[in-house]
Amino acid sequence: MSEWKKICRVDEIPVLGSRRVARAQGMDVAVFRNGEDQVFAVLDRCPHKGGPLSQGIVFGTSVACPLHNWTIELEGGCARAPDEGCVQKFSVRVESGAVHLDAGELATLATDLPPPVAGPALKELART
Q1: How far, in Å, CA of 85 to CA of 120, rounded?
Q2: pLDDT tens digits, 77-128
């Protein structure tokens, strides 16, 4: 049986927006709310170049990555064709207006992925 962790209330997530959930280990999880108050959760990392999906534009049941405009389907976590790749999806439960994520998934899924490196940090890494 799953243990569910309360994250926030649905109305604390902007309509057509997101909220990030920090984890003890691994990258943040992005929790999205669409125009129909459906809630989805995926790793906050585009499968293309690691862009922060939480900063993307939500439309329908998808989000557009802010870096290169890849469309990620929030229900399954996969990029829309012709792009390819998937991001880790997390189970969500909404009860009485509260958003819950599976605590076991938060603790174990995609915890080994390194954060993307960009900007000045990328230049420093290239020198080594």
Answers
A1: 27
A2: 999 999 999 999 999 999 999 999 999 999 999 999 877 766 665 666 566 6
The C-alpha atoms of residue 18 and residue 12 are separated, in whole angstroms, by 9
Please compute, for residue 44, the number of CA atoms within 13 A of its CA located in the half-sphere on the CB side.
20
Other CB atoms within 10 Å distance of the CB of residue 6: 12
What are the C-alpha distances in Å from 124 to residues 48, 50, 120? 22, 18, 6
The conformation of residue 14, written as its DSSP 8-state character, comes to P
Q: What is the mean pLDDT of the chain?
A: 92
pTM of the model: 0.89
* Distance (Å, whole) CA 103 – CA 92: 10
Q: Characterize 55-82 residue by residue with b for buried, 16 or more Cβ atoms within 10 angstroms of its Cβ, and e for exposed.
A: ebebeeebbbbebeebbbbbeebbbeee
- Residues 38-75: tens digit of each pLDDT: 999 999 999 999 999 999 999 999 999 999 999 999 99
